[in-house]
Amino acid sequence: MASGHFxxxxxxxxxxxxxxxxxxxxxxxxLVAFSLAARASLGSGEAAIxxxxxxxxxxMSEVLVEFIDTLTREVIGxxxxxYVPLFGAVFFFIAFSNLFGLIPGMTAATSNIxxxxxxxxxxxxxxxxxxLKHGGWHYLAHFFGPVWWLAWLMLPLEIISHSVRPxxxxxxxxxxxxxxxxxxxxxxxxTKVGVPVIFYGMGTFVSLVQAFVFTMLSMVYVxxxxxxxx
Length: 230
Hints:
Blueprint: H1 19-42, H2 46-49, H3 57-76, H4 84-100, H5 113-135, H6 137-141, H7 151-190, H8 195-225
Helix pairs in contact: 1-3, 1-4, 3-4, 3-8, 4-8, 5-7, 5-8, 7-8
């Protein structure tokens, strides 16, 4: 929903310009609670490595972790496992934030350009730090191109190319989620029965796809930053 509409945070007298901050805090709280519940459901010893036999928090967490683990290995390769917690956190934070906007009286923090850009900048800093940690000078050297006499041209092009990544990630996420939740809000205002169900389904799909795209692109950036290590 648009930040100018009524939300449950208004009941706590949260100013509209800080609604996205309150939404971020709420999403973080939900994720922490879910994580603690999932960890508790694992148990210990042999029970912890036994797959869940029925639908439960343990079963859900196993499926979600396996999804992120498989995706990370396919994009990054053999060294991917150490990045699973990172990309799992990115995916679930964005997905839960997006889905929050589908709850009546709530808002998606990712619809706010400030929050979306912050996540984009986090991704930008992360893959560059990982690249420096793995490649050191060799990572920096790729900014100058394959031959030294083209460095004067390649350096500014590489800097521009990398600098636009956090903005493209953040703006794509913010624009898509704003459009999605605006459409849903419009149809909720027009009719309360039947039609909105279709757009709730579409909204859920778009929310998950946007989280997937953002996470996938972040994985690709890390893969490119560490490719010399493969």
